[in-house]
Design brief:
The chain is an alpha/beta fold. It contains 11 helices and 11 strands.
Length: 307
C-alpha cells in the first residue's frame, strides 16, 4: 500500500511496494552490470514512484516519448503501456542487452545504445527520465535546445533540483537557475527518498516538470545572454559592477566599459545590486546593453555561446 504525505505543497512517498534488492542484484549480475558512482547509476526500485512520474507526463497513445538512462526498465514498463512509441537511450552495454530482452515482445519501444550527450536524439512530444545524475546539467540544456517537447518529467538530485527553480535573493540562485529559468518553467512535483533506489545514493531526489517558456522577458540575442550569464555568475555574491569588471578583465577588455554598459541600462540594473539578487528581466536588459558594445566592436562577439 502506498502512503502519500503532503508537505508544503509537495507530495512525499513514505511507504511502497518494491522491486527487491535481491531481484535487482540478480538482474545486474546476469547482465554483468556494476553500478558506478562515476555515471551516477542508482536504480529506482519503487513501482509507485514510477507510476507517479509517468502519470505526471500525461501521456496519450499519440505521444512519442524519450527516456534517457533506461536502467532496468522500471519507467519504461509504465511508458510502453501509455505511449505510441518510446525511445530509450542507454549507454551501458549490459543494460542495453537487459532492456532489449525485457521488451523483446513490444513493438512500440526502441532501445538506443549510445551516449545521450553525443548521439542524435529523436523528435518526441514528451520526455520522461530518471536522468543519470552525472550529466544532469548538460543533458537538460541539450534537450531544451534541441527538442520541442510539450513537457518533460525528470528526476534529479535534490540539491540540483533546488538550484533549477531557485528565486533571486536565495542562496541557491545561480547560473543554473538563470539559464534554465530563461528557457523553461520548472515545477517541483515529488520528493523521492534515497532508499527508493539501489544502490542507495548519498542524497535524496526530486521529480520536476519542465515546459518551454512561451512568454516572458527575452534578450535580443540568446547567445549574448548565455555568454553574459556564464561570464558574471561565477561571482554571485559580488555586486554587479564588480562582477562585470572582473569578467572584462579576464577577457582582457577595458574594465571601464562597465560604466558604459550600465549607462545603457538606464535605470535598472544599477550596478550596486548583489548579482544573486538580480532577476531575469533585469539580466535581459543588461544583456541587450552588452549587445550595443558588441555591435560597435568594443566587446568580443560570442555568437554561438551555449549555457
Amino acid at each position: 500500500m502506498t502512503n502519500l504525505v503532503h508537505q508544503e505543497g509537495r507530495c512525499i512517498i513514505t511507504q511502497v511496494s518494491f522491486l527487491s534488492d535481491d531481484e535487482i542484484r540478480a538482474l545486474l549480475k546476469k547482465y554483468k552490470v556494476k553500478p558506478t558512482k562515476k555515471h551516477g547509476q542508482s536504480f529506482l526500485k519503487n513501482q509507485s514512484v514510477a507510476r507517479s512520474i509517468v502519470s505526471a507526463a500525461e501521456i496519450s497513445n499519440n505521444d512519442t516519448v524519450l527516456e534517457i538512462g533506461g536502467g532496468l526498465g522500471i519507467l519504461t514498463k509504465q511508458l510502453v503501456q501509455e505511449a505510441k512509441h518510446v525511445h530509450v537511450v542507454e549507454l551501458d552495454l549490459g543494460l542495453v542487452k537487459a532492456l532489449r530482452d525485457i521488451f523483446s515482445d513490444y513493438d512500440n519501444v526502441s532501445i538506443i545504445e549510445g551516449d545521450a550527450l553525443k548521439i542524435s536524439l529523436p523528435n518526441v512530444t514528451k520526455i520522461v527520465s530518471n536522468l543519470p545524475y552525472s550529466i544532469s546539467s548538460e543533458i537538460t540544456f541539450r534537450i531544451l535546445h534541441e527538442i520541442e517537447f510539450e513537457r518533460a518529467v525528470l528526476m534529479y538530485q535534490k540539491e540540483f533540483a533546488e538550484r533549477l527553480s531557485a528565486l533571486p535573493g536565495t542562496s541557491n540562485y545561480s547560473r543554473l537557475s538563470v539559464n534554465i529559468g530563461y528557457q523553461a518553467e520548472v515545477e517541483h512535483l515529488l520528493d523521492v527518498p534515497a532508499n527508493m533506489f539501489y544502490p542507495i545514493p548519498a542524497v535524496d531526489s526530486v521529480v520536476v516538470r519542465l515546459r518551454h517558456i512561451t512568454k516572458g522577458p527575452r534578450a535580443k540575442d540568446d547567445d549574448v545572454f548565455f555568454w553574459m550569464v556564464n561570464g558574471i555568475f561565477p561571482y554571485p555574491n559580488k555586486h554587479l559592477r564588480k562582477a562585470l569588471r572582473i569578467w572584462f578583465r579576464n577577457m582582457k577588455v577595458d574594465k571601464n566599459l562597465t560604466d558604459v554598459v550600465l549607462e545603457y541600462c538606464k535605470q535598472y540594473p544599477k550596478g550596486d545590486e548583489r548579482l544573486r539578487t538580480i532577476d531575469i528581466k533585469k539580466l535581459v536588459i543588461l544583456s541587450d546593453s552588452l549587445l550595443n558594445l558588441i555591435e560597435t566592436g568594443e566587446l568580443p562577439d560570442p555568437r554561438g555561446a551555449k549555457p
